[in-house]
Amino acid sequence: MKQAGEPITCATAYDWPAALALDAAGIDVCLVGDSLGMVVLGYESTLPVTVDEMIHHAGAVKRGLKRALLVVDMPFMSYQMGPSQALENAGRIVKESGAEAVKIEGGASVAPSMRALREAGVAVMGHIGLTPQSVHALGGYRIQGRGQTEGKRLLADAVALQAAGAFAVVLEGVPGALAKKITRALKVPTIGIGAGIDCDGQIQVWHDMLGALPGAPPRHAKAFASQFQVQLEALKAYGREVKTGRFPSLKETPAP
Ligand code: KIV
Q1: Out of 27, 155, 161, 245, which could bridge 166 as a Cys pair, Cβ 3.0 to 4.6 Å?
Q2: Whose CA is nearest to atom 6 of ligand 1?
Q3: What is the 172 CA–ligand 1 centroid distance (Å)?
Q4: Distance separating alpha carbons of residues 103 and 110, to the nearest angstrom
């Protein structure tokens, strides 16, 4: 698709109904992101998410997909200790959830784990720039790669991941001009989120894209629907009808 200049569409999903919709909509790649922690489980960051939680949600998503490629995030501290930990946990994720690929965050420092996974036959996506698992080390959810030195470092990270076998690299929260440079430098596709228009594909978080949480989505996102509002209205209508005796009616009542 990169060679053909066809933009790659990616979105996150965390359960079976979402996977059914994503697949039916023709989205190319489905990521069970560890954003799960923040948009589904109510944690303040992605850090508490466990391998078991990722497997539980990814298994549900897998059962809803017929066509889209299923990529599953390896959560914080499930691969940072090095290749053998990465192999053990990626093995569990692939075997127990049915994932077709895993994603790990980090640049050149995770290249040895990326290489070990590829040598074991696991397809791996990279993720650089604003890497939420390093939120405290980064000093917050900030744009990365600004300025020449940082830009060069991110480019070198992207090249190192490709050399280690990444089949694609997510660029999150990086200036558009840098994302363009990295995209041109790599043979494998870049997938952007908050990285401008020149990446080979785009990824959005389900809840941001569908307006499924109260409040405005982050600046890099666009809400293509107002799911939270629709649910709120429906729940209020249900509550009203039960309180006023309009639901259930005879229509919803079993015949004698
Ligand atoms: O966890 C996630 O949803 C992600 C995407 C934002 C790329 O890593």
Answers
A1: 161
A2: 205
A3: 8
A4: 11
Label residue 219 by pLDDT band (50, 70, 90): very high
The CB of 190 under 6 Å from ligand 1? The reply is no
> Could you tell me the distance, in angstroms and rounded to a whole number, from the CA of residue 33 to the centre of ligand 1?
5
Q: Measured between alpha carbons, how far is 227 from 230 in angstroms, rounded to an integer? A: 5
| Secondary structure, 3-state, 208-255 | HHCCCCCCCCCCCCCCCCCHHHHHHHHHHHHHHHHHCCCCCCHHHCCC
Q: Decide: 183 in ligand 1 pocket, CB within 6 A.
A: no
What is the rounded distance in angstroms from the CA atom of residue 123 to the CA atom of residue 144? 26
Q: Determine the atom of ligand 1 nearest the C-alpha atom of 12.
A: 3
- Output the CA 40–ligand 1 centroid distance in Å: 13
Could you give the CA distance from residue 23 to residue 18 in angstroms, rounded to a whole number? 9
Burial-class residue 221 by CB neighbours within 10 Å (0-12, 13-18, 19+): middle
Q: State the average pLDDT for the chain.
A: 98
**Active-site option among 44, 150, 172, 252:** 172
- C-alpha 163: how far from chain center: 23
Per the DSSP assignment, residues forming a β-bridge with 172 are 129, 193
Q: Which tokens hold the place of 40?
A: 């589904």
Between the two ends of the chain, the Cα-to-Cα distance in Å is 59
pLDDT digits (tens, 9 = 90+) for 118-170: 999 999 999 999 999 999 999 999 999 999 999 999 999 999 999 999 999 99
| 96 classed as catalytic | no
